[in-house]
Design goal:
single chain, alpha/beta, Alpha-Beta Plaits, 15 strands
Amino acid sequence: MEYSDKQIAAQEAVRYIKDGMVIGIGSGSTVNEFLYCLAARMRKERLQVVGIPASKKSERLATELGIPLTTFATYQNVDIAIDGTDEIDDQLYLVKGGGGSLVREKMIDLVAETFIVIASGEKKVKKLGSFPVPVEVVPFGWQATEQRLQQFGCQTNLRMVEEDIFVSDNQNYIIDCDFKEIDDAEALHGSLKQIVGVIETGIFINMVDKAIVADNGELSILEK
């Protein structure tokens, strides 16, 4: 059987899961593959774990696969977080949020003792910016917030789903900001966060402990 790069990365990530762990579950297609692999290992080895999902989509799939879930009300600490990415550079900085779950993803990934990113090879970039940076904003006055975002030299688009405005799991809007190329991701993130109405950006700085990247079947483990 031939596996996709996403499946190869997911299979490698499952090796880091140990009995009794609290797992932060990100979102996206590569994380879905991780959940399938995790469920198979739980059945085979009777592995006992619980997960905190970052999105309703991940929550639904984990429930369908029989992976027990919990919340921060029960566990404030996360042993390991497994998440995908839209871009990752040589410093292990990320752009995330293509699926619209950036705030919950960042909350989980930030508190995890170990944060592992899983990705296929095309997500690896020399410099962030090819993928527009998602910025989650308060719906009230989003037009004014968008104008302030444009002052940083980006093209902006309010995220839509067909004819409707996309609404995040937190009931907020997302403005996708196309910078083409980001020279200083840390400074940009800090500046965008200062804008009133901005809740969070999809730039993830100094958070990743390990990246598992599969490219044309070849596996690479990147560490900071």
